[in-house]
TrEMBL record:
Recorded superkingdom: Bacteria
Annotated keywords: Membrane, Transmembrane, Transmembrane helix
Protein name: Uncharacterized protein
Segments crossing the lipid bilayer: 18-36, 48-66, 75-92, 112-131
């Protein structure tokens, strides 16, 4: 366990400018997805500020820890992380799934959280790629 914690601490020690970009991108991404999910009545957070706890405090450190791994590894580890988040959110009622939403209709209600986890696990490799591009464009670094 100590080895794992040391690994994570090393991975999240990054340039503060990079960390700010991660937080801004993920915060805006989270607000947008929460808005979209509510507009099309798929799912939403119970409170808007959960974007901060989920996207910034949970997903940004995980993204940093996964940064540099191959796409498939980021997705696989991200799937575990998102599976736990989705399960917890719906089990605790901090996330709300609209009844009979389009995903329920397409996959059925029993597969809703799994579908959400499979989709949102893409955030880690795509987020790392996008933030890396923005950082390189702004500061000329990787």
């Amino acid at each position: 366990m100590k080895e794992f914690l040391n690994f994570v601490i090393q991975k999240i020690k990054v340039d503060r400018r990079l960390l700010v970009i991660y937080c801004l991108v993920y915060f805006l991404w989270g607000l947008g997805m929460n808005w979209f999910g509510a507009q099309v009545e798929i799912a939403k957070f119970t409170f808007w500020w959960q974007v901060i706890s989920c996207y910034i405090l949970y997903m940004v450190p995980i993204s940093l820890a996964l940064r540099g791994l191959p796409f498939h590894a980021q997705y696989a580890y991200g799937l575990v992380a998102m599976g736990l988040l989705e399960f917890g959110g719906y089990a605790l009622g901090t996330s709300y799934a609209y009844p009979n939403n389009i995903l329920d209709q397409f996959f059925n209600v029993r597969n809703f959280s799994l579908g959400m986890a499979l989709f949102f696990a893409l955030y880690f490799p795509l987020g790392n790629w996008g933030v890396g591009k923005i950082y390189k464009m702004l500061f000329g670094k990787n």
